[in-house]
Amino acid sequence: MFCSQCGHQISENTKFCTGCGRSVSGEQVPMSQAAPASNGKQKIVTIQDIPKIKLSSIYREVFWFAVMFFVGLPLIGGLISWGLLALVDYLETG
Fold first, then answer.
1. Could you give the 3-state DSSP secondary structure of residue 60?
2. Which of 21, 31, 44, 62 has its CA 20 to 30 A from that of 77?
3. For the whole model, what pTM was predicted?
4. What are φ and ψ of residue 2, in 5° steps?
5. Is pLDDT larger for residue 48 or for residue 63?
């Protein structure tokens, strides 16, 4: 038997087509009446076929701004504070 949707060959006790995933219970067409798929090959979906998530440039800019704001700014502020405290301590002790 063949799937009526994609023409993939399926066994008689199959509930879903292994070629397209369509439910084929009660819809199977005998081999003599169905034509196989146009190219005769089964398409195998691989992980490379799934589109990769790409961040737009605006998201990259927002990400780096957040990194600089939450990491860089406190780091610079801490260094300035430490430097000023060290300077005050040096000036007080002579």
1. helix
2. 62
3. 0.34
4. -125, 150
5. 63
